[in-house]
Sequence to fold (151 residues):
Amino acid sequence: MTETTPGDSPMDFIADHTRRYLDSDGADGHLWYGIDGSFTQGAPTLLLTTRGRRSGKPRRTPLIYGRDGNDYVIVASKAGFPEHPLWYLNLLAHPEAELQVEAERFPANARVAEPAEKARLWLVMTALWPEYDAYQSRTDRDIPIVLLERS
Fold:
């Protein structure tokens, strides 16, 4: 990454989640309960830092994650909006990323799941966050799943 301080989301609830995660090394924010707190089991989240595909600047995003062996699994849902999230487009251009999972920070490489992997991993991820099925039903785009491998 070319700069040292990543840009965070301009959306207040996302920026707040990110700040709490950073300030507590994930003790506050590792489990995400949804905006209204209605998801009672909590879904694990990590902080993903990508490099902007146009600007080259680091961008940080909190995301729900699952695991597949040693890999971290994230879903490019953007809540079912018609376009892909910016972090996903950034990873397509620059697959090198940085992750923070609770207090641990490390580099990772991203790749998009192949169709057979995606079918299996979709079930893993919807078990963590059932809303992914609703997000997919709201959009015509095929929501990608990304695997992040520690580098």
In short: Strands lie at 31-32, 43-51, 58-64, 66-68, 71-75, 96-101, 104-112, 145-150. DSSP finds four helices and eight strands in the chain. The first strand starts at residue 31 and ends at 32. The two ends are 15 Å apart (CA to CA).
